Amino acid sequence: MLNFIKTLIGLNAAMAGKIRSIQAYDEGLAKRDAGNFKDGYVLIKESAELGHEGAMAILGSIYLLGEGTKENGSEALRWLERSIELGCEHSISVLGMALVTGKAGIKIDLQRGRKMLEYAAEKGDTQSIRMLEAMDNGLGMFRSLKRNKKLVRPK
C-alpha cells in the first residue's frame, strides 16, 4: 500500500511539472510575441528545464540569437540537440543553419549541417531550401565555398 501511495505522489508531481511546463511555454511565447524577450527567455528556459521539447527548441534559438540573454553557442547546441532527441524536427533545420554559419561561436561543420538542412528541406522547410541554394551558388557568406565544390556538395 505504501508503494502505491508513493507511486501516486510521484505521478502527481510529474503531472504538475508537465502542466507547469506548458503554462510557462505559453506565457513565454506571449512575452516574446509582445517584444519582452528577457521575461520570455526566463519562462521558456523554465519550460525547457521541465522537459517541454518545443521550449527546448526555442531556447536553443534564443541562445543562438541572444534574445533576452547573451548569445551562447554551447547552450544553443545542447538545447537544440536535446529537442531533436525528443522528436522536435524543427530543431534540425535550426541546428543545421547554425552549423553551416557558425552563429554564436558554434564551430562550423559544413557536412553535418548540410545533412541536417537536406533532411529539413526534404520535409518542406523553406529556410533550409534557401540556405542550401545559397551554399550551392556561393552566395553571401558562402562565396568562398563556390571554389571548393567538395565542401558545398559532399559525395
What's a quick, concise take on this entry?
The protein has 155 residues and is mainly alpha-helical.
Give a description of the structure.
- The chain is an all-alpha fold and 155 residues long.
- The chain has a single domain (2-152), classed as Serine Threonine Protein Phosphatase 5, Tetratricopeptide repeat.
- The chain has eight helices and no strands.
- Helix 5 packs antiparallel against helix 6 (110-122).
Per CATH, the superfamily is Tetratricopeptide repeat domain
Instruction: Predict the CATH topology.
Output: Serine Threonine Protein Phosphatase 5, Tetratricopeptide repeat
Oligomer: single chain
**Low-pLDDT residue spans:** none
Average predicted confidence as pLDDT: 89
Count of spatially separate domains = 1
Helix coverage percent = over 70%
Number of helices: 8
Profile the largest sheet.
none
CATH class: Mainly Alpha
The CATH architecture would be Alpha Horseshoe
How many β-strands, per DSSP? Answer: 0
Strand content: under 5%
Q: State the end-to-end CA separation.
A: 61 Å
Please state the overall shape, judged from the principal axes of the Cα atoms. Answer: elongated
- What is the radius of gyration? 19 Å
**Which structural class fits the helix and strand makeup?**
mainly alpha
- H/E series: HHHHHHHH
